[in-house]
Amino acid sequence: MITENQVKICQNCKQQFTIEPEDFDFYEKVEVPAPSWCPECRIKRRMIFMNQRVLYKGTCDLCQKEIISLFDSNTPFPVYCNACWWSDKWDPIDYGQEYDFSQSFFEQFQELYSKVPWPALQTIEPSLVNSEYCNICSYLKNCYLLFNSDYSEDCVYGTYVERSKQCLDNAMIDLCELCYEGTNIQKCFKTMFSSNCWECVDVYFSRNLRGCQNCFGCINLRNKKYFIFNKSYTKDKYFKELEKFKLGSYETVEQLRKKLQELNLTYPKKYMEGLQSKNVSGDYIFFSKNIFQSFEIGGAEDCKFCQFLFISPTKDSYDFTMWGGNATQMYECMGCGGGQNNIRFSYECWSDDTMNLEYCMLSKKSCSDLFGCVALGKKSHCILNKQYDEDSFKKLRTKIIQHTREMPYKDKRGRTYTYGEFLSPDFSVFAYNESFVYEHFPLTKKQALEQGYSWKDLKERGYEVTAEPQDLPDHIKDVQDDILKKVIGCQHQGKCNEQCTTAFKIIPQELQFYKKMNLPLPRFCPNCRHYQRLKQRNPLKLWHRECQCAGGKSDNKVYKNAIKHFHGSNHCPNEFETTYSPKRKEIVYCEKCYQQEVV
């Protein structure tokens, strides 16, 4: 048993990182060696294997149907429409290959997944109804350009949109209806241009509200009604004041956005976003316990270095990115979940009753005891998609693990891979700027190439813009239905670092929403709008800081406390890990000080 911290040098970034005794306990339990990459580099390495939102047009290599796909035309493997891929028209076991001890395991695995067909999109068939332009989704109806979303209806342009209806341009929402431009809003109705709000109704331009109704431009309120910029009004006076704001005007909305950003710097922030969690570190952690250095977690327990596990419960897992859903003992996995147990170094494995997978991709339906397999369903005791009896499987698996140590794989940057490492970024079929990692760890083309990643230059789209953004009507009441026929230029003109499409169109469902909710037309393409919402969420990184409550005021003297705190006139002694960098201007309080200031 290891009882002391061990400091290692990351194989990738060459920086020091620490492995703690409880980490070694987990590695021993799941029978894997300690990692040779630091936690942040491990996140990036997994993320580069997933393309979330870059879509292409193509043709199914089986039925020849035109499809929307994650893959450009130069992929090494066949791409099937999802109906064909999930069907019985082909058998992945036909691609099985004998293990070759003269070649490294990782090269053989790459050879396998370079010839097995891949699904055009990562969706479960047949769960999408009239929602073909959506990815990493299930059980959607009448949705368009949703990503990583489930059980929603009539929603457009969003990421992590769960169990919601008639919502547009949102990120990380659940059980919401008629919401627009929201980030981390839960159980809300008609909540617009707001973030970190729960159980709110008719709320605009607000942050960190709970149980509020008819609030405008407010911050840190609880169970309030008829407030404007944190000032109380009578019901009649509230609605009269609200009439002064021409919310259908784009110019007005932009002015209010700017004002909210300025106000946001004058009120304290809690060091992390979360609710009803115990013994946790990270950000956006809800209904969880014993969660460390993790981000955007719901209903999890005993996990570390995990991200985007919204579907609960997830238990006893490390280095697990995306999904969850009654998953246990997951390690170095990306996009896995749904009643799974003991899955390691795997990507996009789905369905209940799946266990004991190592180095697997696209596992569908119930599987167990697979090593280095792709796209198998209802199979067990397979290696490189070749079937074995149980005894032969166990013996060969042991030999392969030893073989990875005797013949490790070295990638083009000289990094070494043996059993226990996730796949090399070299093996990803996606370029850096196509993959999920680009959203959270953006690099320029030059930076990506210098760090050994591939890059895909965007093809010239050649859109003929028929309406410039500055020429659009300022107010929605002046917008005519002929806007649906126009190609609108994105205000960024492709000069940003946000996968700008340079132009976009308004779809009927979208225009109907704007008119119904009295909202102006957007001036940016959906991708640029998505990246603007990402900026409202802090990075997947922690800094050690002290509470900024200095007694009666914040230590920058911008905010005056409403009441006396437990530390009196002295500076708060509490310290914490937070996603707010010390270089940022926000006022960051510990939970005790923050809770005393919300009203």
Which structural traits does this protein have?
globular; 599 residues; 12 helices; alpha/beta
Secondary-structure blueprint:
Layout: E1 6-9, E2 16-19, H1 21-29, H2 39-47, E3 56-59, E4 66-69, E5 79-80, H3 82-85, H4 105-113, E6 118-119, E7 128-129, E8 138-141, E9 144-147, E10 150-153, E11 156-162, E12 168-174, E13 180-186, E14 189-198, E15 201-204, E16 207-210, E17 213-216, E18 225-228, E19 231-232, H5 235-242, H6 250-264, E20 268-270, E21 274-275, E22 278-286, E23 289-298, E24 300-304, E25 307-309, E26 314-324, E27 327-337, E28 340-347, E29 354-358, E30 368-371, E31 380-383, E32 386-387, H7 390-406, E33 409-410, E34 416-417, H8 437-440, H9 445-450, E35 488-489, E36 503-504, H10 508-517, H11 526-534, E37 543-546, E38 575-578, E39 587-589, H12 591-597
Parallel strand pairs: 5-6, 7-8, 8-10, 9-11, 11-12, 12-13, 13-14, 14-15, 14-16, 15-17, 17-18, 20-39, 21-22, 22-23, 23-24, 23-25, 24-26, 26-27, 27-28, 28-29, 29-30, 30-31
Antiparallel strand pairs: 1-2, 3-4, 18-19, 31-32, 33-34, 35-36, 37-38
